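Hi support team,

I submitted a single chain yesterday and got back a structure, but I'm not sure I'm reading the token output correctly. Could someone confirm the output below corresponds to the sequence I sent? I've pasted both exactly as they appear in my results page.

Thanks,
R.
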Amino acid sequence: MSAQLIVGIHAVRAALKHGGQRIEQIWYDAARKDRRLRQLLDEARALGLRPEASDRAGLDRLSAGANHQGVIARGAVPTSLDENGLDDLLAGLTHAPLLLVLDGVTDPHNLGACLRSADGAGVDAVIAPRDRAGGLTPVACKVASGAAETVPFVQVTNLARTLRHLQQAHRVFVVGTSDAADSGLFEAALDGPLAIVMGAEGEGMRRLTRETCDQLVSLPMAGQVESLNVSVATGICLYEAVRQRGRGG
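Hi R., thanks for writing in. Yes, this is the structure output for that exact sequence:
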């Protein structure tokens, strides 16, 4: 695995908690008097790491101006699964899978926010194509606030083929989101083995992805805007599935 920068308190703490052995170094702003930062440094030292004191200007240069909150780490990129890894994951589940599929979501902020919502909703895996999609970049991992470490991220060569495999081999019902759909989200049955497909903002799902879906649904829009940000729409769709599946308590 290649190394990357992990930026911000939430992202670094998650990396320490879920994969501290992958952290190579930590730099922190010695002038910052922050309880959360002190706790993070204590956790790092307990794992045998030796955080290196720096200053805000040095961290600004290292992070290329990203909001580092006084701490940056260098460590291995969270591991992505492939098609075989997805099969193994699904075979080990004891409940009906809930999957999030992102088709053409390239913005790292949107990807990170989708991962965060996926973690909160108990999604079993997030699936994206290898091409024309965002990966687990430092920005995506920071926005995910630890979810990049906890939610399996699967990158596949052919998304439409993967969806057909999920339908045939795992009996997953594939629901795609589209502004042009005749059915509404809240009328769809989302309580069985399920994959929710979200398309890129503006373009939506690609044609082959759309044609592979078992059902297309839209979100009701009562105002003047035509659509929601993809990460906001993702959260709504996932939590409707959570509500129907009784996971919300």
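A quick pointer for reading it: The two ends are 38 Å apart (CA to CA). Let us know if anything else looks off.

Best,
Support desk
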